[in-house]
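Please predict the structure of the following assembly.
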Amino acid sequence: MPKTIIEKVWNDHIVYEEPGKPDLLYIDLHLLHEVTSPQAFEGLRLNNRKVRRPDLSFATMDHNVPTKNRTNITDPVSKKQIKTLAQNCQEFGVPLAHMEHPDQGIVHVIGPELGLTQPGKTIVCGDSHTSTHGAFGALAFGIGTSEVEHVLSTQTLWQSKPKTMEVKIVGDLGFGVAAKDVILAIISKFGVDIGTGHVVEYTGEAIKKLSMEERMTICNMSIEAGARAGLISPDQKTVEYLKGRAHVPDGEAFDELADKWLSYATDEGAQYDQTLEIHTSEIEPFVTWGTNPSMGSGISSHIPYAGDFSNQSEQEELLQALTYMDLKEGTPLSSIEIQHVFIGSCTNSRLSDLREAAQLIKGKSVHPNVTAIVVPGSFSVKLQAEKEGLNRIFEEAGFEWRESGCSMCLAMNDDIVPPGERCASTSNRNFEGRQGAGSRTHLVSPVMAAAAAIEGHFVDVRNMLSVHA
Amino acid sequence: MEPINKHTSIVTPLDRVNVDTDQIIPKQFLKRIERTGFGQFLFYGWRFNEDGSKNESFVLNNPLYEGSSILLANDNFGCGSSREHAPWALLDYGFKVVIAPSFADIFYNNCVKNGILPIRLEEREIEQLFRASKGHKYQISVDLKEQFIQRQDEKKVAFDIDPYWKEMLLNGWDEIALTFQYEKQITEYEKQQA
Ligand code: SF4
């Protein structure tokens, strides 16, 4: 019987199954960071347990590392968390890319970069955006700290078989439309809980044409649609991306592995529990205006009116969000002024994101009312960008060029948006207070963020791009 | 983890949809390296005004619901980040049961693994509970073994729960110790893959 990639990866990892129970799944790769791991290591110590497979574990520091001056962590509690991770990794033998290490970066950026992320693997991390790795055809999902402890000590997890969902993108992407716009449009159309209980596979010609970086942007935000994991069947592009990466074998072993990877792709005619479709003609550059990622619209439109919704709780949700955001019903998106721009996060901080943004701002300057920062996703992205001179383009335009980390995506370090101010952000969450207490976040693609930095308000990037072309 | 079976309390109604984990425990409080002590930060942005004073209009600050250990919530409760600090904060504050029409997947798992019972009920039942508990002390009893809640008006409402999770909650089991019973199978699997 033809199978989806989800079923294939799942079936390959069942260690034990019994009717009426979740399956015991083997975990191929466990990524760790400083925020969700300390209590798990503490649990091991209390129970006198060890890490079963340190060789399948990999840790980094990303969530609260400083992006300005690495050696200067002002918050004593952050400092303690970072020190604790280093101690835990040493005590339990877990490989660590610490703050000054050349492999350091946001956990979901370095996994693929190092070739740790591979098709057909089960990958977990105490972080909900682990879905990012699904871009490679891996079954990758976020777990809580108890599960982190469980994986550390047993290399397995009890998991109930998820339902499968296909999200099909029909047609070709329009000019100036980014991967970010695709996923924001999907979430806005179907809602923030459509994926609950499901693993999503993204399909369609448009997906096949995307680069690996763009695929990661889409899979990254699967969790914002409620799905724990979102993936894309591997193809030749996946194989090409991984070739030559640090943790990938070469020569004959590579060819063998590549064949195995490709065999995970969904079979022709395989059935999903549910299929959703979106046509690319519905997708234009997107801006969110509310306090969850489904509250967004195309740049040429306006904030909805409460009257547009028939259901009372939706009306209340809209009004609550607009109160927090200090916006009015019916406001055209292009008239919203911003004071901050953040280009970064595991959604959009890879080299291609920075290249696209840099191309747009080249020779222009950041609007006087705007503070703009670029935070590369990893040390290696930063280094490569500097080789290409992207940092100079950003700096000449008035952007700050920072060290890698999560930074303003969740504002656990010093990078915060002050209360009441607005930020055009390439990250993935626009929840109340996400970028700092009282901050107002608008999610956009890197080029849309760059364009807003220059104009001081949102603009349809397609107009700027066409001038350039 | 503490076992849970029968539990009785008045209900705290938190009538908002898509309550995310950033709201349950804002990220500036994630830096502790212990599992305890998070209750003081639960719903911080809603419980407290900017100057640090209590926001009297927030439901948790309403004296009516003092001592309540059952939280009534709305659709997609616990969405967003995977942080287990969210159930830790709920538990530390004193909530043992959360009732909602739907939960985010990771949050649901995280609850069960910390001895919080998450109960999914039909939209209609939830609406009735909200109506009964908003502005009133409304007591319900939960029976996990028999899988029902009993309302103050004596009506019983059944709920579903995965039998495996139910066992764990009823017994307060340590899941890792359980999994160690499958050590042989795990080693076997590793050999096959090597
Ligand atoms: S960049 Fe943001 S979303 Fe990504 S791992 Fe860091 S905090 Fe989480």
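The mean pLDDT of chain B is 94. Residues A 62-63, 106, 108, 127, 129, 345-346, 406, 409-410, 427-428 surround iron/sulfur cluster (CB under 6 Å).
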